[in-house]
Amino acid sequence: VPVGTSGALKAVTNEQADEAGVQLMFCNTYHLLVHPGPEVVRSAGGLHAYMGRDRPIITDSGGFQVFSLAQSSAEDGPELKKRSHTKGKNRDGASVVKVSEEGVSFRSYFDESKILLTPEP
Questions:
Q1: Core-most of 12, 41, 54, 73, by most CB within 10 Å?
Q2: What proportion of the chain, given as a percentage, has pLDDT over 90?
Q3: Under 8 Å between Cβ of 89 and 72
Q4: CA distance 39 to 22
Q5: Contact between 28 and 60 (Cβ < 8 Å)
Q6: How far apart are CA 32 and CA 23, in angstroms?
Q7: Beta-carbon contacts of residue 82 (< 8 Å; ≥ 6 apart)
């Protein structure tokens, strides 16, 4: 299953994906939440319309990021390394993720805005 992390396959058009027989695509909830954001996807008419796809799409829950983004490490990708050197990181070096009854709060690696990921749409 090809992964369109932020709603698009890199270097592959929808037509090329269709020609290659791609029936299902995977998108990452956290990355879509960070950029372009739910308002953009909603105003486009939903994820299928935003992506220009008429075939099945699956998304993850975003729960992986609860653990993987909690602390930066040497193995982190560029967006996490950027985050570890920004104001998004607590001054004491603690986690930038907070878990509550309401959901999980993150600091965006894109623009450092606060994001709340909840189980509700």
A1: 41
A2: 40
A3: yes
A4: 27
A5: yes
A6: 21
A7: 109
Print the SS3 string covering the chain.
CCECCCCCCCCCCHHHHHHCCCCCEEECHHHHHHCCCHHHHHHCCCHHHHHCCCCCEEECCCHHHHHHCCCCCCCCCHHHHHHHCCCCCCCCCCCCCEECCCCEEEECCCCCCEEEECCCC
For residue 112, name the pLDDT band (cuts at 50, 70, 90): confident
pLDDT tens for 63-83 read: 787 667 666 566 655 555 454
Residue 92 in this model has a pLDDT that exceeds 50:
no
CA distance 103 to 86: 23
Write the single-letter amino acid at 70. Answer: A
d(CA 89, CA 105): 13
pLDDT digits (tens, 9 = 90+) for 1-22: 999 888 999 999 999 999 999 9
- Give the tokens for residue 97: 């993720």
